[in-house]
Each structure stands twice: as structure tokens, then as C-alpha cells.
Amino acid sequence: MPFRPDHIGHFPTLAGMRPPRIARVIAWMIVIAIALLGVTMVYVPWVQTAAGRGQVVALDPHDRVQSVTALVPGRVERWFVTDGQAVKKGDPIAKISDNDPELLARLAAERDQVHAEIASLESARAVASIDVNRARTLFNEGLAARRDYEQAQIRVADQGAKLAESRAKLNRIEVSLNRQAVQIVRAPRDGRIQTLNAAAGATLVSAGTELATLAPEGGTERVVELMVDGRDIALVRPGRRVRLEFEGWPAIQLSGWPSMAWGLFDGRVRSVDPSAMPDGLFRVLIEPMPGTLAWPGDRFVRLGAKVRGWVQGETVPVGYELWRQLNDFPLEFGTAANKAEEKSMDVYKKKKK
């Protein structure tokens, strides 16, 4: 038998119960919240992003931090700079002296001796050449044996071999002299001395030992080096828009709603490495987005500053994104996004050309 409202009189306890007003309000609020949450999950858009962390680097390798190394073995006799000092191209950084102070003098004396040997061998070869011509003439006239003519030729060849050996020895001495003469290490370009290898001043150094690190200043074209997980790298392609948060720069980030973020800067994917780094992450280079707010200057964001970035992808409902995150699914491949990406890629390639 179905229950009707007039049957409530048969249940006096139930009829006497009156829920408090606050309980009814809370119940209605919960019902409305669930309904709004359902509508939000279905109709509110969310921009998917591939997040990554990285740093600011110089695009040109010559503008990155460089190591200044010793050109010859020896020990550092004198430092011409200190940590943090600005230098110009060609300014001296350190002077290296050989362990043997008489090495240059002995090499010069050996070079003079080899020069004398070469002069003597050239004279001897010239005389031997004359003997060959004389022996040939006598042999043709029948006044000398073939053996004498052949021995004269052998003497010329022997003198030529000795002359070539002496000249090779002279070249080795010249190389040693040139290397030992380059004892003052100079700055390869304008910049600032970042660190000095102080231990090199008290110990022996070999050719190639790092003496200092030089950080170029000013005029560098900066890009951001992001490390992105391999799960999301398939959607990261040149031309994609990127939102960047620089270290030390106040920002509020809402990755799903870029228009509501504050303090972030726009970038564009310049290139993606074809293979992963040893830690399994892929390196993505980000350049400034033309026509947007310029990145902070060198004074605020220096080379090596940490950066967080979000490469923007497909726009999906919030509910789908929540479901994707809970199930650890990759980003969405959408037709609309792919068409927009292809158009962006065409524009990007034309600008590159």
C-alpha cells in the first residue's frame, strides 16, 4: 500500500519531529553546491599545461660562463685579477712560470745549434750534389765506375734525410718556445671574473688546468631552459605558448586559467631536444613571445636564475582534467588544438626563414 501524507497521523513520533531551520539551510546549501560542482565539472574550461623547471641561459655559447685554462705547464707566479673584477678582452688574468727558470734560455741555445746544423747540412748537400754531377760526367765518358756514381747519389740522399731531420727538430723547438712564451693567460672576451682557482697559485698546473671562470656581461640573448617530463613531451613543439615564473619575481599562477594569473611572462617554444637527458627529462628552449610584455632585465633575472614554466596545450572541461590527473593520463590530443598548432607552426617557420 503506497504511503500518503494523510497516513502521517498513524506515526505520532514522526509527526512530532521538526528539523531545525539551520539543518534545512545546510541541506539546501549542500544540494546547491553539488549541482554547481556538477555544472562546473562539465562546462567550465581548463587549459592543460605541461609543467617544467629550469633556468635562464644564454642562447649564444660564447655568452655563457667560460673556463679560463692554463696554456702551458708550470705554476702561477702572479694573479692580475680578483673575484668579481670586470675585465676586457685581452686583459691579463694570470702569469705562469715554468718550473725551470732557464728553460727558455736553453731552448734558444738549442735552436741556434740546430740552425748551425742545418746550415752545415745544406752546404754538405750542395757539395754532394756537385760530386754527383761530376761522377755522372765521368761515368758517361767512361772514366769512372758506376759504383762511384751511385755512392755519390747515396751521399746526396743521406744529406737530404739528415737535413729533413734537423728541420723537424727545429720545428719542435719553435713550438716549445712559442708555448713557453705564452705564459700570460688573458681574458677571451669582456666579462667579469666569477671565481679564481686559488689552489693553482700554490701547486703545479698542467696545460688545460682551470684557472678562473669568466661570466660575460651585457648584450646576451637570454632563453629559458626547461626540463619537461617525457609523458608530456609529445605535445611540446616549436611555437607553443609558455607561461614563465622567474625566481624572485612575485607571481600568482593558475595554470588552468592563464588569464587570471599575475606576475607571469609569456614565452614560445624555440626547440625541443630529440633525446632525453640522463635523468629522463627532455630539455626545451623557450624564447620571448613577440608582442608581449618583455622579460625582466638582467638586473632582476640573471643567467642561471631558476624558472618554472607551463607549456599550454588543449582546453578541456575541469571534470575531465581532474579525472585525467587522478588516473595519471597524458595530455589530450585535440583536433582544434592540433589545427591551431599547425597554423602557429606555419607562422613560426615563415618568421624563421
From TrEMBL:
It comes from the Bacteria. SUPFAM superfamilies: HlyD-like secretion proteins. Gene3D superfamilies: 2.40.50.100, Helix hairpin bin (1.10.287.470). Keywords: Membrane, Transmembrane, Transmembrane helix. The chain crosses the membrane at residues 25-46. The keyword Membrane applies. PANTHER family: MEMBRANE FUSION PROTEIN (MFP) FAMILY PROTEIN, MEMBRANE FUSION SUBUNIT OF EMRAB-TOLC MULTIDRUG EFFLUX PUMP. This is RND family efflux transporter MFP subunit.
